[in-house]
Automatic annotation (TrEMBL):
Source species of the chain: Mariprofundus erugo
Keyword Glycosyltransferase set for record: yes
Superkingdom, taxonomy of origin: Bacteria
Gene Ontology terms: biological process: histidyl-tRNA aminoacylation
Tagged with keyword Transport: no
Protein name per UniProt: ATP phosphoribosyltransferase regulatory subunit
Length: 318
């Protein structure tokens, strides 16, 4: 039947459509006031442009098809950040720093949660060319203000660093992508099973279990920053310094906490990571972090950090 619904996709109309446009406008105005210029990339890209530097997470969520007009293989975007990286590395080469915002639909090859939606209305910002903690701090503040502007109560930002996990699993036989996927489940039993065949020290095994059980907070990071080598120490110092800097100037009732167990939604991050939560909402409301490596993959050596959210999920949570 041609009118049979597609699993994970739906129509939107009436009050829900109006609510989305209202929330979208509110956030885009907030971004504009902060100096971010809106960009509207196409819904379709070449697959390599979407997957460059993004790891298997993004590749697995990308729908690829053959263009009937003869352009070869094309892909529906499952994330807008790679498109912003492409634009910054090609169309906007003249600018040393870029502050860009966006809001539009993306489509996932499969739902992220069982019974969930494959369509998202991704909205966010990208801060490009601002090095060090300055860019990270700017993006964290805007992420906090976005949740407050939308009406979420008592927002919380959990901040981590991908370098912590990289240092811990450097001697393992599993890929970093496998570790991030495993630790995002926060299941000590699953992690214990995965550790059985890994050539890791008991100290590292205990640390990974701490991440899975949710006890790797600021005090944990501070106490162990010298235990796992120079890479771990550098990441820990960078993370704790940023949390101290931003936490002292956080707006409203937003809380900021360091957490070594924060994992990336897509594996293109190369430094600071963060997720946003709010009172009464069980799932993460936004994801963000630094992704300098993706810019390098697109041919431009440029600092890059940002965050994004799904407006459909925000409306449901509100």
């Amino acid at each position: 039947m041609t009118n049979r619904p597609i699993i994970g996709l739906d129509d939107t109309f009436g009050a829900r459509a109006q609510s989305l446009r209202s929330l979208q406008l509110r956030l885009l105005e907030l971004f504009s006031e902060a100096g971010y210029e809106e960009v509207i990339p196409p819904l379709v890209e070449r697959p390599d442009a979407l997957k460059s530097g993004a790891g298997r997470f993004l590749a697995d969520q990308t729908v690829v098809f053959t263009d009937p007009a003869g352009a070869g293989l094309l892909a529906l975007r499952s994330d807008i950040t790679p498109q912003i990286a492409r634009i910054a590395a090609t169309r906007l080469l003249h600018a040393e720093t870029l502050r860009l915002s966006y809001s539009g639909p993306v489509m996932l090859a499969r739902p992220e949660l069982r019974g969930g939606s494959r369509q998202q209305w991704q909205t966010g910002i990208e801060c490009l060319g601002v090095t060090g903690s300055s860019g990270d701090a700017e993006v964290l503040h805007l992420a906090a203000n976005s949740m407050l502007s939308a009406g979420f109560k008592s927002p919380v930002l959990l901040v981590g660093h991908i370098g912590l996990l990289e240092a811990l699993v450097a001697g393992s036989t599993m890929s970093l992508a496998s570790w991030t996927s495993l630790l995002r489940r926060r299941s000590p039993d699953d992690l214990q099973a995965a550790l059985e065949d890994q050539p890791l020290t008991e100290q590292v095994r205990a640390a990974l279990l701490d991440l899975a059980t949710g006890v790797a907070d600021r005090a944990w990071i501070d106490a162990r920053r010298h235990d796992f080598g120079a890479h771990f120490l550098h990441a820990a110092n960078e993370l704790l310094a940023l949390v101290d800097e931003v936490g002292e100037r956080m707006e409203g009732d937003v809380q900021l906490h360091a957490d070594a167990a924060v994992m990336p939604r897509f594996l293109y991050h190369s430094g600071i990571l963060f997720t946003g939560y709010a009172d009464g909402v069980a799932h993460a409301l936004l994801h963000g972090g630094r992704y300098d490596a993706m810019m390098s993959a697109h041919g431009r050596d440029m600092a890059a950090t940002g965050f994004s959210c799904d407006l459909w999920a925000w409306l449901d949570a509100l």
